[in-house]
Design a protein that fits this description.
The complex is a heterodimer of chains A (228) and B (340). Chain A is an alpha+beta fold and 228 residues long. Chain A is built from six helices and twelve strands. The radius of gyration of chain A is 22 Å and the shape is elongated. Chain B is 67% helix and 3% strand. Chain B has 14 helices and three strands. A three-stranded antiparallel beta sheet of chain B has the order 1-2-3, with helices on one face. In chain B, a hairpin with a 2-residue loop joins β1 and β2. In chain B, α1 crosses α2, α9 packs across α12 and α10 runs antiparallel to α11. The longest helix of chain B has 33 residues. Classes of the chains: A alpha+beta (228), B mainly alpha (340). Chains A and B meet through α1, α4, β6, β8 and α5 of A and α2, α6, α7 and α9 of B.
Chain lengths: 228, 340
């Protein structure tokens, strides 16, 4: 081992200092309107509360919009948009984990394609979760919920965490920009068995998908390509 | 005609001890002050960029800090704490090979080195600490190849690859629902075989008589144990298997070993809950069943599979014929004779 070689080694490692000269990121304009419509067809919404825990866990730059929609027939939908800050890692957590922490267990997570006729085919992840609840007479019965989610960036949507991660990395590395992703969730309880004339799983899924068809146009800017 | 006396056998070199190594290194440093200073500075650069350059999590975490925080139970990555010490241990184990290897510096090492440096810079650019962690073994390999050459670098290949187990992958391998459901389905089936009534709701298992209620959480899906099992299998094949295809087959089998171990573990939790006590099953037994049931089952499956792979099946087939003859011999009380 010669001094010359160790000098070359040292010089090569000094190249790591290139990190100090990297150009700053610029941020892409948002692809969404961070505002949920007051009414959507037969649904009318009231503002939902963002819990202190959510605010505490997620990064300071994270922004929210939440509404609880009801249709006058006893059905309710919980709709949330979480808009990430500059670092996605501190802003958005996948619902598979959050729901688990809330006592729900997963019963399925298929990808469901929703036909937003005017805009394209939106891929969503449809989580089916279940937990045991106590009835008034002390019995334990299963309560099921469907939770649809997807991510919307500056110009595209995806239901996959991995795809979103990959898009982010490529954008930062090759284009030098950062995206603020919006994470949409639409959730409803499957009320069959819980109340008279409750909705079955298929009916609940159809209700949510129908709502999403109406939700996408007013919340997604025209620059966003829906689906692949 | 006088013959030459036989050449004396070379004295066996005593094995290198830690003290010898320190003393040799000290001597080398005194003789090559400039190189020693440059080596120390290079090492310092690595420590600085990986340990004290806060590029991640809004500029609050360095690569090392981010990785160490990610080596937690939530990511099912606790085993990563052992990876660096094991890699160093592997190098120590192979120290004689390193000593005996020819030291012929290779410029190819510079290519690897710069590739590793570029990977680190790309990791910072992408705000992706995972990529920055991957760059570390690449830099180490390039460093060794550049300064000491191919033979020494060959010894470093496995420890460097092993360092990749430091990379947190739990968050990427998140889609474990199918594994959770597979474990729940199998445990329900096994319970029905022995007459324990279990209702399955999603990933939850509930006794028909309401005596217990468990959820197959993400950590129980197999991902936690899968990563640990792959790490363990990689080490195992490094020391025991010579053929590359066998090494890969056993590592690939880790998925099956982990599922077998997990099914055994969850099933045992259900049994303890049903026949002993639900509180004990969900508490202390659940926490320790990984050690008591999972690892013996999974490691047993791995060792059994390796034995199957290494069995000389032709010899077994021959042996399978022999016992019939031996049986005849035993029956007649003496050696078999066809000379009637």
């Amino acid at each position: 081992m010669t001094t010359k070689r160790t000098l070359v080694l040292f010089a090569a490692l000094l190249v790591m200092g290139a990190v100090f000269f990297l150009p700053k990121f610029f941020f892409q304009p948002l692809g969404i309107e961070l505002k949920l419509p007051e009414t959507l067809g037969a649904w009318s919404g009231t503002d939902g509360k963002i819990t202190e825990e959510e605010i505490g866990i997620l990064g300071k730059e994270t922004e929210f919009a939440r509404k609880i929609y009801s249709n006058g027939q006893g059905d309710e939908l919980l709709v949330t948009i979480v808009l990430s800050g500059h670092d996605m890692n501190t802003s958005i957590h996948r619902p598979e984990r959050c729901l688990d922490a809330q006592g729900w267990s997963l019963a399925g997570s298929p990808t469901v394609r929703v036909d937003v006729s005017t805009r394209g085919q939106l891929d969503t992840k449809a989580l089916k979760v279940v937990r045991m609840v106590k009835t008034g007479d002390g019995r334990q019965i299963p309560q099921m919920m469907l939770n649809y989610y997807w991510f919307t960036g500056q110009s595209r949507t995806t239901a996959s965490h991995f795809d979103r991660w990959l898009i982010d990395k490529c954008d930062r590395l090759f284009r030098g920009y950062n995206q603020r992703w919006a994470y949409f969730t639409v959730a409803a309880t499957i009320t069959q068995g819980l109340k008279p004339n409750g909705r079955s799983e298929a009916e609940t899924a159809a209700m949510i998908e129908d709502f999403i068809k109406g939700l996408v146009p007013p919340t997604h800017l025209a620059s966003v390509k829906i689906g692949k | 005609m006088p013959t030459e006396p036989p050449a004396p056998k070379p004295e066996p070199v005593p094995p290198l001890e830690f003290g010898d190594m320190c003393s040799l290194f000290g001597k080398w440093c005194r003789a090559n002050v400039a190189s020693a200073v440059l080596l120390a500075s290079s090492f310092g650069l690595l420590v600085y960029f990986y340990g004290y350059y806060y590029a991640f999590h809004n500029g609050t975490q360095s690569t090392a800090l981010w990785a160490s925080l990610a080596w937690n139970s939530e990511n099912n990555q606790e085993h990563s704490w052992f990876v660096l010490p094991i890699s160093i241990g592997l190098l120590w184990y192979h120290r004689e090979k390193i000593r005996e290897a020819r030291k012929e510096p290779s410029n190819l090492g510079l290519v690897w080195l710069l590739f590793g440096v570029a990977t680190f810079v790309a990791g910072v650019r992408m705000i992706d600490a995972r990529t920055a962690v991957i760059s570390f073994p690449i830099i180490i390999y390039g460093w060794v190849l550049f300064l000491w050459g191919r033979e020494v670098a060959r010894v470093f290949v496995f420890p460097c690859i092993f360092l990749l187990f430091m990379v947190p992958v739990g968050a990427l391998l998140h889609n474990t629902v199918f594994l959770q459901l597979l474990v729940a389905d199998t445990v329900k089936f096994l319970a029905s075989l022995i007459g324990v009534g279990v209702e399955q709701i999603g990933t939850s298992l509930r006794a028909s008589d309401g005596k217990f209620n468990f959820d197959i959480a993400e950590g129980c899906s197999g991902i936690r144990s899968l990563m640990a099992m792959i790490t363990l299998s990689t080490l195992y094949v490094h020391f025991t298997q010579r053929e590359t295809w066998k090494q890969w087959v056993i590592i690939a089998g880790s998925v099956v070993f982990a599922v077998i171990g997990n099914v055994g573990r969850i099933f045992s939790v259900v049994l303890v809950a049903r026949f002993i006590d639900e509180g004990f099953a969900a508490g202390r037994y659940h926490d320790y069943s990984g050690l008591v049931v999972f690892f013996p089952s999974a490691v047993g499956a791995m060792l059994g599979f390796a034995k199957l792979l290494n069995t000389d099946w032709r010899a077994v087939a021959k042996e399978a014929v022999k016992p019939e003859r031996a049986a005849v011999g035993r029956k007649t009380g003496g050696p078999i004779s066809y000379d009637y």
